[in-house]
Amino acid sequence: DGFPATRLFNQGYSYTYDDVIFLPHYIDFSTDSVQLNTKLSRNINLSIPCVASPMDTVTEASMAVSMAALGGIGIIHSNNTASEQSSLIRSAKSHRIPFASTDIPFLSPDDSISSASVFNNSPCVFITNDKNNKNLLGVVDKLTWESLPDKEARISSYMQKNVVTLPNTCNLKDVAGYLTKKEMDFVPLVSGEGEVIDVVSKWDVERINGFPKTSGFPSVGENGEFLVGASIGTREKDKERLEHVVKAGANVIVIDSSQGNSIYQIEMIKYVKKTFPNLDVIGGNVVTMYQAQNLIQAGVDGLRVGMGSGSICTTQEVCAVGRGQATAVYKVSSVAAQSGVPVIADGGISNSGHIVKALTLGASTVMMGSFLAGSTEAPGAYTNQGGERVKKYRGMGSLEAMRKGSDARYLGDTAKMKIAQGVVGAVADKGSVLKFIPYTMHAVKQGFQDLGASSLYSAHDLLRSGVLRLEVRTGAAQVEGGVHGLVSYEKKSF
Ligand code: XMP
């Protein structure tokens, strides 16, 4: 019944996710037992298969922190100077878990606290003498301050001294265990130099534990810091950028190019591997087996797949090259798997079904732009557009983004004339990724359950061995598969 993938994808058609559909298989396990843990690249493990795209309207520090907290990862974009990108990486890595407030309040012992707004959503205010926030003298917790009769009193007269702190190398599990054991409401995390980096409260722990469970734990490195990726280009000056981002702590490098099979990229891959042999490097983008083989030979640890399938992309229209994303993911994954190189399905994800399809067709992770844009964590402010709260989302090949420097991705930085390969748009407010990604992952698990795949690895095996069967959907079948025949329907973004 149906077609095995090898037959379906070898008929000369370029299929997108919506063109194909899997036939259900056999269920002998619960949704919750589905494991979504995976690999971003040869040496980077993630507990959910989600990656935030290196775009300047998607991934800066806040997105990277939340994606890592969920068990995925964010790749900090490079449409900025090397030092701006490095400080975004540093800022993301200095956070332990998403903290409700971006600024931890610091005051001196001579100050007084006249209003609750000083707490800035933090459970406490930190008291230091030092402008670098080292040498913690004490804390004032909000509950103590609220019960204070004289709000004008100097902090030194009532602050709590001898504060217990934890090193910022502890992971969330350690901190949560400590708070429970000591029956404390919060604990500051300090660096080796004694600088207060963050504060974790029992409410933060509850908040994180209260999310619908994903398969695993936040993405943290051996030093307990969040894993963060960085994109770079293929120009000579990107070697300098590489030094900067590695120094700032980037855990993986993504070489950002719309057509990755080039002499420039191959040289850059070799350079990164030679200079930092222990750092994983992800190459791309590619859509064919030939492109993939070249980059694998050059030494990549991961491959990013997709050309023109992104929601803001016009590459296929402007340049007449690209490939339907379902076909591209299947074809590239089939060669990458032979070398143990994980594949990132980049672009074209607009619902959980697309994620199930990408992962089952051989990808190990999905990279998303528009799906994450418009969230609380995406850069930029919300604006009002026709009564709807929206955030800007733009292609990195749009003229507007290229004016800021991203033209190198489209090899247009040395050209006399810039040709747009993307557009500028807006995406409706979706709320926090901390809420909608766990929800989406649960839907993905249900998809895997219907396929009879209890993990990504088992889905890949079932596809390769021909157990999983697919078909192409006709136009009418696609209409039938969507909502139809109703007078009105409120469309949710996930
Ligand atoms: P989604 O569909 O998730 O796609 O919004 C995000 C991916 O699209 C790619 N990208 C572009 N492709 N012109 C293009 O042809 C552009 O201006 C552009 N900007 C981003 C990129 O791979 C991203 O991850």
Shape: globular
Helix content: 25-40%
Parts with pLDDT < 50 across at least 5 consecutive residues: none
User: What about the largest sheet?
Assistant: 8 strands, parallel, barrel
Q: Give the termini separation.
A: 31 Å
Largest sheet, order of strands side by side?
4-5-12-13-14-15-16-17
Number of helical segments with 4 or more residues: 16
| Beta fraction | 15-25%
Q: Which hetero ligands occur in this complex?
A: xanthosine-5'-monophosphate
Classify the secondary structure makeup into a structural class. Answer: alpha/beta
**Averaged pLDDT, please?**
89
Number of strands: 21
Question: Which radius of gyration do the C-alpha atoms yield?
Answer: 24 Å
Describe this entry's structure for a reader.
The protein has 494 residues and is of the alpha/beta class. Helices cover 31% and strands 18% of the residues. The strands form 6 sheets. Strands 4-5-12-13-14-15-16-17 form an 8-stranded parallel beta barrel, surrounded by 7 helices. Strand 18 and strand 19 form a beta hairpin. Helix 12 crosses helix 14. The longest helix has 19 residues. The protein is globular. The protein starts with a helix and ends in a 13-residue tail after the last helix. The mean pLDDT is 89. The site of xanthosine-5'-monophosphate has 26 residues, from strand 17. Xanthosine-5'-monophosphate binds next to strand 17. Catalyzes the conversion of inosine 5'-phosphate (IMP) to xanthosine 5'-phosphate (XMP), the first committed and rate-limiting step in the de novo synthesis of guanine nucleotides, and therefore plays an important role in the regulation of cell growth. This is Inosine-5'-monophosphate dehydrogenase. Pathway: Purine metabolism; XMP biosynthesis via de novo pathway; XMP from IMP: step 1/1. Belongs to the IMPDH/GMPR family.
